[in-house]
């Protein structure tokens, strides 16, 4: 039924799409066929031209896929597709938990199928063309299947937690659901390296040698004892490189991509880890967890106020009020709210990045860190000059040029 919420949903869906296009347009205005002065020392002119080409191709592809997904969303809303799916599934079960599970599993599976050609094009056409892709079709297919099962498992756990809590406690379900989701998140973070990573990658302890001794010597100096240093086979999928910290307490580990070891000197790798150790020392991960928990609690709390509006289900084409249609309606409405929360989070994260860079600099590794970041950025053809509004709106990291400027400030007392 086309009530006022129907038009509100259409409006919100369209506004999200238009805003995305504005941001990507602003980014395009910052592209420049002539290499800007600041890029000197990071790119040579030929590499810079390649970077612009890469950016253009990614941008075109993103606009194409965003437009298709916008049109698909509008079509589903217009014809009451979600309500239709609900009515269809009601023929098979009366249980609210089973109904919600079947509903969200069907949607997840459909999204999964629709994404396959896009993911294929990105990997085997764009990434391939620019020399990044090392994924074999076999790895690609295996990733897809494993990703689907992992997704269905997580969706299953979260949806059954929320819907069961709702059937038991009614209006206050969100407090119980919040607890359950927080617990699931903590368990997954704690066992991430043991349960999730091995599904996709091989991790081996970093062998004894110059690099390991350099890392351990630095960790000792920074009074940050760590023995869990692992190398992951990132080269199985891409030539791009990375390094990260995971887990907490005894499970804490440093993970280096094998591609990083090939690209950087030992001192540069130590500088990258000094940055990561800086995050740990300043307890940034804990802020991150608290922020995520607060966001989830806020969203669930807001959701509880909207779920019992029967017009939501009707606007989505449902014949009887249902919990999961209410949830879908709410998720369309919270989009803008979510972006604003993200904006605040990104602002905090960018501050933490500067602080972690400062930590590396305070150990005399500022220069090595910048040289490492230059190599990583140029090798991955990173955009040096996104539009300031795009950085403000959606970047969790400052740009390389901003981090270089900050290092110069760090150096001058
Ligand atoms: Zn960082």
Walk me through what this model shows.
The protein has two domains: 4-199 and 282-411, no CATH class; 203-281, Metalloproteases ("zincins"), catalytic domain (Zincin-like, 2-Layer Sandwich). It has helices at 4-29, 45-78, 81-90, 96-129, 137-169, 173-200, 210-221, 258-263, 266-281, 284-306, 310-315, 323-362, 366-379, 388-394, 400-411; strands at residues 203-205, 229-232, 243-246, 253-257. It is globular and about 65 Å long. The chain is mainly alpha-helical and 413 residues long. Helix 7 packs parallel to helix 9 (266-281). Strands 1-2-4-3 form a four-stranded mixed sheet, with helices on both faces.
Note the main attributes of this structure.
single chain; mainly alpha; Zincin-like; 2 domains; four-stranded mixed beta sheet; binds zinc ion
